[in-house]
Specification:
The chain contains 14 helices and 19 strands. The protein is α+β, with helices and mostly antiparallel strands. It has three domains: about 200 residues, no CATH class; about 90 residues, no CATH class; about 110 residues, Nucleotidyltransferase, domain 5 (2-Layer Sandwich). This is Reverse transcriptase Ty1/copia-type domain-containing protein. It holds the Pfam family RVT_2.
Amino acid sequence: MAEEIAALEHTGTWDIVPLPSSTAPITCKWVYKIKTRSDGSIERYKARLTFAPVAHRTTVHTLVAVASVRRWAISQLDVKNAFLHGELHEEVYMHPPPVYTVPDGHVCRLRRSLYGLMQAPRAWFERFTSVVTAAGFVASQHDPALFVHTLPRGRTLILLYVDDMLITGDDLEYIAFVKACLSEQFHMSVLGSLSYFLGIEVSSTSDGYYLSQRKYIQDILTMLVSLISTPRTLPWIFTFAFVPQMAFLLRIRLAIAIFIVYLGITRPDISYDIHILSQFMSAPTSIHYGHLLRILRYLRGNIDQCLFFSSSSSLQLYAYSDATRGTDPSDFKSISTYCVFLGSSLISWKTKKQTDVARSSAEAELRALACVTAEVTWLQWLLADFGVAITSSTPDPVKHQLTKHIGIDCFFIRIVWFLSSMCLRSCSLQICLPRVILELNMVFFSPNSVLLIHHEFEGGFINMGCALLAASWLISSHDVQQFSISSLNAAPAFFAACNNCTP
């Protein structure tokens, strides 16, 4: 607490003034937190006296993927007492914090933002933006938490997530200048090369970057060890429909919201499970609780999986979409899913229930295609900020006219595919990559299988697509593991389909 009080006084957070008449001061309290390292050891004890933009998950993946291919070093920095740097323009009075002595009848008039104020995150972000803009950076129009600086000699990128930031690029001299500039304006901690960011463990080798949440999963399992003694190889079983019932336990909702959802940053294999269970957070039942435990058992058996961003990957976008029609018996709405690769690196994926009931499979597929088209369009703009040019190619038209009620999606797709640098091709149902996420669950590969498939990249568009999924995952276990898809019965059939299919 003494350290935090000193920081509050150093930044001039408040003035001690008499309380004006007809003014009601706000209260405050101490909030304590233990900050740990990636290995679980305690880094420091934090005390905090309690809507800013933050980096999008896909932007983080894209930054790591591009840095891996271009072999840029990624440095991590942390701003101490970040919210105290924001300037407060409103007139706000606060009771002094506990153990802080002021004269009778006096209160604290806040000059700077403080944790817990609605203005605090935005005020801090505006302050940081003004500093980096003065240093020559420009905020990206496609992700406001990404700042870009371009010179003929190189490019520098800063990605901000509240008070944590990543800085990378090929202009090492300017990166050193930026670090010095930020240290003059804020109380900074230079944490060195990227290793642990937002609960994600990052390891770097000559082959690329590996992202995992092993410690985060281990913390969950430690708390619930008695409930998940038996590991599972698959996260889900489609044997019955989920129907909302009376609330069962509040802890189910908390477990889903706090534990499982955040794993979606590095675990696309549970994307569908997160999508399903999140629909019942307000009224979970014992059935949902049982399947939540099944997911946790699955994570226990596959704790070492991680995302792999290869340094030998290309920088070409590949996107896959799929949909199921009327699979939810409660409302008969279809489910869309897609995954987007930058070369061999999986950077974006999503599973989402469609807002309207589809009258045909074609309609459901079209809406899924519109969803991934919007994502790819945004990614093309974002990649331009990274200095990645997307190669143009002749687009194939959408060859069939659709009914009027979905004409907007049809028109959107036709315009984008005709006027942009995208091309549209169909995939066999058996090897459609989103089907892996949608119908099952996850495809498991041994490290040897990943390397074997990686050599098949030059065989064609479909071969590459299948290899992308394999190469994007690293399985630490050296046991040969099987995969299971409802439309396939054996791994050889899957690989045979990969080798025989052409666009």
